[in-house]
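Structure request: NAD(P) transhydrogenase subunit beta, Chitinophaga varians.
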Amino acid sequence: MGLSVLSIIYLIGSVTFILGLKMLSKPDTARKGNLVAAAGMALAIVGTIFLYKSEGKHLHNYGWIAAGLLIGTVIGVMAAKKVKMTAMPEMVSMFNGMGGACAALISIVEFDHLLHPDFTVNVDISGDGDALGRAIGEIWAAASRAMDHDLRGHLLIILLGLIIGAVSFAGSVIAWGKLNGRIKDFAFKGQHIVNLVVMAVVLLGAVVLIWTVNGRVEAAAEHSLLSFQLLFYLVLACALIYGILFVLPIGGADMPVVISLLNSFTGVAAACGGFLYNNPVMLTGGILVGSAGTILTILMCQAMNRSLKNVLIGSFGGGAAAAAAGGGEQGSYKEISLSDAAVVMAYASKVMIVPGYGLAVAQAQHACHELEKLLEDKGVEVKYAIHPVAGRMPGHMNVLLAEADVPYEKLLEMEDANAEMPTTDAVLVLGANDVVNPAAKSDPASPIYGMPILEVENAKLVIVNKRSMKPGYAGIENELFFQPKTSMLFGDAKQVLQQLVAEIKQV
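Returned structure:
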């Protein structure tokens, strides 16, 4: 009875994951979708704890399980409540890394169970050296009979979870450090070759392990358990090193793509855990996360008109080379006063707001929404132009504006926003840089050449709010700032918006 009820619970959990993911595709249902998927996960966890049975035995160590759930819940809730919007990408990256670490730990535990199954084998290892080999062979033969399946296939899933989870964990930690500025871009000559060598060691070690464990007593007897374990942990260490080297040279401008890719890695690693435990809800959740992360990664690469290979080996953003490619300042720029900017926006028919990371840094989303409502009260049509890779993670600007209760229908995707630019009287760029750089269309020498951008230069007037003329995250100069129709409005985004609101009220 318990098994049938648990199967129904797992089915419900799997359905909630699918529905939740579907609802996440639209801003107005994303929050509800997140809650639906979370409820399904909670149901699956409770069902597993109290109804799961393996070989007639229930789970035990409920105290440890409860302690782990309590500690994890407290940390998760506190982190989510206290995190600033600017630090949201870092938290997502770290939480994703914890998922990869869990998958790797599951593989380590299951590998230990593979070596030390829950059964007794009486063997005599006294005498000559061949006796030890025969004893090991008896252990492997008994393990094969106890698990009643192919050891090679079982170890393959263990190693997949170990390698992918370890790469995801180590890479996510590096991404977290790069996002918060603790870790700088680092690359050395021949690093790609070193990466390939490390990955080759990982794959070769995994092949040797799988080839050794083939379920035959004769083959297993030729290898000691100690060397087998050492090779396994060598694979783990090299996978961790590869995860570090894999992310370390990637430029800051590509971090959204890297986070998405690592998220898909974690999903695949979790799916391996579902295979190991024959747990359908864990398998479904892992596959959904892996596939969704992969699709999102591809879409983001398309949004930048770059291949995934170019992202992973291009070291784009933040380096001296990128800055040099920008060519330095391209002329003089002009500033606009707060009062002039207020008059322009108050008497415009249509205003387009382009949010960027500077808006998130200043925590200015609420002030931006106040400006939007004030302009609409004066009869101005206000919309937001959202670039797919604006900010530091996928959907960063959508989450930021949703926090300020900006209506979802006002958020335009890049293609729709670009179609309305020629009929827009004024564009207010708030902290965005690379996603509005015309060099992506006009300068073949630019590292962002070919990347689709928000074509704000097609509007009648462009007002750019920045703290300074410092280049953006890609480390290149923005030629938009020097065009005749562009005016610079320097200052902290929140303070500037509040002052704009005050000025517009007096117009």
